[in-house]
């Protein structure tokens, strides 16, 4: 071909030959045939169709995302190519200045023209810590050969380990949407209640007549609006559950407040009880069948259930308002703790820069005047030190800005606080943050920028002390407000429980028949009024605490009805029936007391205390703190060794201590894994973390404390943090809702059209996909004619 070497072909038959020629571009080839009677040559021109790159479509992820639980990022990609697909890779990096790292996700040995890959990518190599992010992209390859393979690259996806501030902002946004949804549902429920009560007041038609068109339409609209309200409440409940899971992941709030949020989620889930669903279903069925009697019978029950739902919505709105206020106060304290931890880390970095400056000043540059290589190395280290100091200065300035924002939020919280002591503490914390902490942080930033790292460290330490004082003030404010309110609620529950016990005993005594029928009837009526007063007090209390179950109100309602019925029957002379109703009322009172005891126990409970041992969360937290401290010491020894020419005896001893500490951390993690594997509650991938700890220990013992060790230790810490939030999520995961099974009748599908079985149509549909592939324009007319011929059409 084009004057190249000849390629021999093999004979298939005496008159038929076969061969293969590789084409690298446009040109011509000459075919020479020889026989006993002579030879002949034939020349043909070839135009090579370029191999187009593959087409990559990413269905998952759809955009940037937070780091999922277990650090496993889902992906789903479809790859198409005109000749064949060979491989799908993933490329990732932590910052724009880092090179891309690649990992093969799937190889396609049969090289199909269309392929799909869907699985989860382990993002642990990014070694993300809270507040950090990285990017990744998918790359698809075709099967081009010879020469380089064609490739298609997806957009870049950013995966982020949310910081504490991000977490609180996301929780606030989600709960704001819950609040707005509940407000809309409550307003619509009031409108429905007015409509239902109007229908009940209207005179009904005669029995032999059907319901009027206007009345039927009004009932239909009421049922439709009820269904819409139910959907809104379901959406609000789902958002609240997701908010609970977000808070649980990072233990955003203390356990007692977290338990309140869980109870709040259960309240939203139970707003639409089974009686409400049954009443709505009966009304819908009656409207569908135009059954007048069924419609009129379902109307009072639907109005009653709607009224109950409205009360639950109003209770939920009031509780959510109070819980959001508690969350706000506790979040302020947690944010102050987070800022202090960040400032402590900045102080450590200021100290490292100060030590480096002292060592540089102690060296006499004139002694090494003839050593050009050391001068070059010193200049390179100086440049790196300046870049590191500039980055540290920017982080210090950002910390000062975050402190000022926290002070502003504390000031706003002070304005909305109802308690004088709480307001005073919040004002003190805001002043501390504005006038002390942020000022010292800004001074540390200026000192760092000017190169005075020692002064920057000193100012930073003062800022840390100020942040600690502000955190203590805000935490005491939040705890005092919560404890005082919880104590009042607990006392009210205990009083109600004691009152109900007394009422239950009095009801049992009345049922023993020692009094005259009239006196017993009056006594039962008085007891019913007493139960009503307790129910009213509990109804008011239910808007102050989420621990009161709806089952208490239901039991009290049955008790009041039973006592009233008992008094009425006794007054009418039916003493036996009255006594039976009284005993049923006593049973309902006992049931209410039992539920109140459960509520009291939940309100007294302090999760994580008095268990005689540490929880899995606490154990993993301790391991993470030890690993973080070990990482810091490893970085210090690595920096020290990079500046020294040889390792001293003290350095070798420190390396052995670090390796032993890594071994102890690994053994502690192994103990946690054994405990949690038995309970099936540890969701983090700690097996990989333990393996990496073993590798880190060996590297330290061998004296290899370079960048690879730092990356591996950061990756270990990232896995531990992810495991800790996984346990938090599981511990507070709402239970699945059990629902009553129903028979659902589905109509059978219609018969398939006979046209679907026509061979030419099916073949044409298959070939239309091939028609959509990229082909040279000069061949498209021939392909279209071929398809029309297969379909049996002339157009």
Keywords:
alpha+beta, 11% strand
Any overview of this molecule?
This protein has 795 residues and is of the alpha+beta class. It is 65% helix and 11% strand. It has 17 helices and 13 strands. It has helices at residues 164-201, 213-249, 255-270, 274-289, 292-362, 372-416, 420-450, 453-510, 517-541, 550-571, 575-604, 616-643, 649-679, 686-701, 707-731, 759-772, 777-791, and strands at 10-13, 16-18, 27-35, 38-46, 55-60, 65-66, 72-80, 85-93, 101-107, 114-122, 133-142, 151-153, 157-160. A hairpin with a 2-residue loop joins β1 (10-13) and β2 (16-18).
Summarize the structure.
65% of the residues lie in helices and 11% in strands. With 795 residues, it is an alpha+beta fold. Helix 1 runs antiparallel to helix 2, helix 6 runs antiparallel to helix 7 and helix 7 packs antiparallel against helix 8.
